[in-house]
Amino acid sequence: MKTEFQAKFLQHLLQKKENQGFTLIELLVVVIIIGVLAAVALPNLLAQVGKARESEAKNAVGTTNRAQQAYHFEKLSFAAGASTPIVQNLLGISIPAQYYGYTYPTASGTLADVYARDTNSAANGTRAYSGAISAGGGNYSQVVCQGSTPSVATATMTAATSCPTDFTALK
Known about the structure:
alpha+beta
């Protein structure tokens, strides 16, 4: 019986096929699945990069509005200057301009505004930001506005209570 078992075992081993690896169909299925996942994930990843860059402008515009409020509270006028460094120096703030350029138009006695525009918004996928603060009757009103698309240029702020066309107010 032992030899008969050995013979059958040897026959079984000879008839058994060895695994030869993956078939071409299996490899194609894996490549297609990876391609679909990459096509879905890549645009989402790039959008997150743009949102992270936009946080620079949101923080800068909000900081400028708050600094203008403090300046006005002490001096009864908003800080104005011929250039961005002069205004930032008057306000006592330092805003890094890595992705955005900032403009501080001449402030009036009742309204101060700031504009943040990405120098390469089409490539970075970032939007423009505008902010304004106004003072009147002992009260301050301020607004930070976000452009609706990356192609929207900054718009002139006429009031600190509403945003221009193609802009939405941030909360």
